[in-house]
Amino acid sequence: MLELVKNTKIDFMGKKYIAFVLSGLISIIGLFAIYQIAHGRANLGIDFAGGTSVQLKFEKPVKVHDIRKTLEDGGIKDFDLHELTGENKVLIRAKNIEIQLGKISEQITSVISQKFPENKFVVDSTTEIGPKVGGELRKNAGWAIFWATVFILIYIAIRFRLNFAVGATVATFHDVTAVLGIFFLLGKEINLILLTALLTIAGYSLTDTVVVFDRIRENLRTRLKDPVDSVMNLSINEVLSRTIVTSFTVLLTSIALFFFGGEVLHDFSLAMILGVLVGTYSSIFVASPIVLLWGGNKAFAKK
């Protein structure tokens, strides 16, 4: 494998308390975002809040600004517009419309057809989600994250030890809450696409952490007389090049999706970019220090 850095001797464990303060602040923001989402006070997508999504395909190019003004003049409020570049398609997502649910798609097509009689369109797709269904999806999404966390804990506990499982679980939860908190602060929409990105980030973060744990376990078996924190520092430095190369590769793919993947993949790729950066940080500065603090030297003595 390509080695970008060789024979590094960085004292990662010596910086654990600085990392804990930084990660603590990030986690507080993430937990606050979860609280706001649970109470419906975040920028929830129609997946979770309920609403209508209508995708229109026009015969000729159409300006998003004109569509927006037409909808506002037609009395339609609280909606998002996404232009699918190069296809003359527009995605309209109207939220929080309990009274109008079932009629909003007709209202949208009616006001647009009246405004653009010379530019015919067809309805590619229509999706309507009631507020009760949205609430149920929000609840199920929470359970999906909960059970994913539980199985991660069980898997790492079986493969390594409980203190490793705690370190990996905390690091994974830290990454998910960090990305969620950033999206909340940016006012980005919280929807099923973001949930998909968060679960993908959890898988990536866990894989990166397990690689570091594997090297720590190998070195602990052969360096029984060395202090545990020194063995951890050595292990992280040994896999540092691999961590950088892997993260950089995934980062390049995510950046390409961000710029060239289109509007639909924009937020997903942004979440992946943030997740790779945070996940790489947590696998080095969060997971291993927690294992050390949770288990101490005795936890590794006979493994």
Throw out a few tags for this protein.
four-stranded antiparallel sheet, 11 helices, 303 residues, alpha+beta, 10% strand
Write a short abstract of this structure:
The chain has helices at residues 16-38, 46-49, 64-73, 104-115, 131-159, 162-186, 192-222, 228-238, 240-260, 266-285, 287-295; strands at residues 51-58, 79-84, 89-95, 121-129. With 303 residues, it is α+β, with helices and mostly antiparallel strands.
Question: Topology, please?
Answer:
Elements: H1 16-38, H2 46-49, E1 51-58, H3 64-73, E2 79-84, E3 89-95, H4 104-115, E4 121-129, H5 131-159, H6 162-186, H7 192-222, H8 228-238, H9 240-260, H10 266-285, H11 287-295
Helix pairs in contact: 1-6, 5-6, 5-7, 6-7, 6-10, 6-11, 7-8, 7-10, 9-10
Protein architecture, described:
With 303 residues, the chain is an alpha+beta fold. Helix content is 64%, strand content 10%. The protein has helices spanning 16-38, 46-49, 64-73, 104-115, 131-159, 162-186, 192-222, 228-238, 240-260, 266-285, 287-295, and strands at residues 51-58, 79-84, 89-95, 121-129. It has a 4-stranded antiparallel β-sheet with strand order 2-3-1-4. Helix 6 runs antiparallel to helix 10 and helix 7 runs parallel beside helix 10 (266-285). The mean pLDDT is 82.
Count of DSSP H/I helices: 11
Instruction: Kindly report how far apart the N and C termini lie.
Output: 29 Å
Global Rg: 24 Å
Order of helices and strands: HHEHEEHEHHHHHHH
Structural class designation: alpha+beta
Largest sheet: 4 strands, antiparallel
Number of strands: 4
Stretches where pLDDT falls below 50 for ≥5 residues? none
Overall mean confidence score, pLDDT = 82
Q: Which overall shape is indicated by the principal axes computed on the Cα atoms?
A: elongated
Strand content: 5-15%
Q: Name the strands of the widest sheet in spatial order.
A: 2-3-1-4
Helical proportion, percent range: 55-70%
